Amino acid sequence: MAGRRSAMFLGIDIGTGSSKAVLADAEGRVLDSATATHDVSYPRPGWAEFDAEGGAWAEVVRLCRELFARNDAGAVAGVCVSAMGPCLVVTDEDLMPLRPAILYGIDARAVVEIRELTEEFGAEAIFRDAGKVLSSQAVGPKLRWLRNREPEVFARARNWHSLNSFILAKLTGELVLDHHTASQCDPLYDLRGNRWHEQRYGAVAGHLPPPRLAWPADVGGRVHRRAAEATGLPEGVPVCAGTVDAWAEAFSAGVRRPGDLMLMYGSTMFFVQVLGEFRAEPKLWTTAGVDPGSLTLAAGMSTSGSLTTWLQRLFGEVPFEQLVAEAAAVPPGSDGLLLLPYFAGERTPVFDPDARGLVTGLSLRHGRGHLFRAAYEGIGFGIRQILEYLENAGEPIRRVVAVGGGTKARLWTEIVSSITGRAQLVPEQTIGASYGDALLAAIGTGAVPAETDWARTAAVVEPDPSTAALYEKLYATYGQLYPSNREHMHVLAALQEPGGP
Length: 501
Prior knowledge:
Layout lengths: L7 E7 L3 E7 L5 E8 L11 E2 L1 H17 L7 E8 L5 E3 L9 E2 L8 H11 L1 H8 L9 H10 L1 H6 L2 E3 L1 H10 L3 E3 H4 L6 E2 L4 E2 L1 H8 L6 E3 L4 E4 L2 H7 L6 E3 L4 H8 L7 E6 L3 E7 L9 E4 L6 E6 L4 H10 L5 H9 L9 E3 L17 E3 L7 H26 L5 E5 L6 H11 L3 E4 L5 H12 L12 E5 L6 H28 L6
Parallel strand pairs: 1-5, 5-14, 9-12, 15-21
Antiparallel strand pairs: 1-2, 2-3, 4-7, 6-8, 10-11, 13-14, 15-16, 16-18, 17-18, 19-20, 22-23
Helix pairs in contact: 1-6, 2-4, 10-15, 12-13, 13-14
């Protein structure tokens, strides 16, 4: 054992736009990392899918091989995987997916099944037990959709997973789902009792067995021989249950105490606030947290980084730094241009898959810098709406921690702080969810105490008081855009369906 490197912990995250792996030691020092980019598929309006085998699992194998070409795999003492979610992956008896994974709330295909299950079990009963109303974020309606619309696939299925639990199963052979992800599988999970709701589970999942429940840091299994051969991981290494990427990222940023709020700037904008006691609001999601027995309040927008990426492509792949510089040269308020960022429908606060994007106030004087800044500001107004819901329904917001790739564009975080009137803390370590996974692996294997926090603040973004009056006026107008245009949006959304309305 002499000269062998001290223990390392491997965290892997499969996000909407990329997969990342990090090796960290017990002190939280990042020893190495690797990234693989990918695209999700949008085969129809309102659908969002991903290849669980050829995408997620193949990337896990590739990232492990890349890291272990440079590092001693024998020093890995624990593994944890997070992923975008909650998703639905159905597999046969050999853990081969039978169709692409159906993604989280950005996939809005199960509109009929949401109504069906709400009527079947009762809206009040679901809200009481799950802490939220059924929406496109929930897994249960997607399971029912599969049963209704692809019955031959459902009949062949032997297990169901979310994306992180699918990777856990590929690594260990164990069927385990973390409590947080399970709490987004409404109406199958009883949040107040932290268990599967037996009657509803059977009515929705049918012959598919319920995964064993565990908290994200709990060891779910150990790397088996086939996975060791594929990845280079040592056989027998413990693998923790993991969780949804946003919650792993919140954990990495130290968002663990009541009143802490994570604001995640990613392909979509996501919010996680830690609660001190059970609270529920119909436009938000109450869920199990990461720490055992904890609760969180969450919300999500359907576009953010994906909207700015779309604009970049629309402008001919202009370098992102140039677009940010052009947006920074435009005055606050974008010279009277206002954007509603519902380009992929919207989750919180309207929960309308047929909502559509809107740009209003356009004139011949406006250029691409105006449009890019208006996108940042439109997302900022949407963030303000959600923060108001969180503040009214949950704990008072004690501090806001900004994470995700979007924080690298300082202009964006500055605009959001000015629109919301709130300071944002930016952590020193920006790797994100995979870093939180490494910490969960260290905690789960007993290498560090459960209360260990690796987060350090690198910067504080303060609001600009000189813009407050202007943004207040624009925010009032922003709030009228959706209700004033909802019916028109729905007409146009119907025209976008294959075959027309």
